[in-house]
Amino acid sequence: MAFVRSVGQGEIDMKSSVTWLVLVLLLLNVLVACAPGPNQSKGTGNEQGSVAGFWLGLWQGFIAPFVLVASLFKGSLGIYEVHNNGAWYNFGYLSGLACFFGGGGSGAARRRKSAS
Q1: Exposure of 64 by Cβ count < 10 A (0-12 exposed, 13-18 middle, 19+ buried)?
Q2: Is 49 helix (H, G, I), strand (E, B) or coil?
Q3: Does 103 have pLDDT greater than 80?
Q4: What local confidence, expressed as pLDDT, does residue 33 receive?
Q5: Which of 48, 58, 69, 106 could share a disulfide with 92, CB 3.0–4.6 Å?
């Protein structure tokens, strides 16, 4: 292991190991603290009584980068619909983001073909 110094014949510097353990635990704690909680509005309708599904999630995921920039100038815009049906909306949203950023993997296939 590159981050552990050897002190003697097979002995490990305990101070270094404890330091790394504390850093890893601190990092895990920070990551867990950033995890989102449950969506209390899931499955409930918005002002018009509609619940966002897959197709609206796909569209909103595709336009999310543009809405993010616009929301910097207009505070009333949101980039995620909280009144959604759950997993299908999330799947559509992530698929829309992937389509916007070219997440199909076709670029890698093109590079591989041109290299050979």
Answers
A1: middle
A2: coil
A3: no
A4: 77
A5: 58
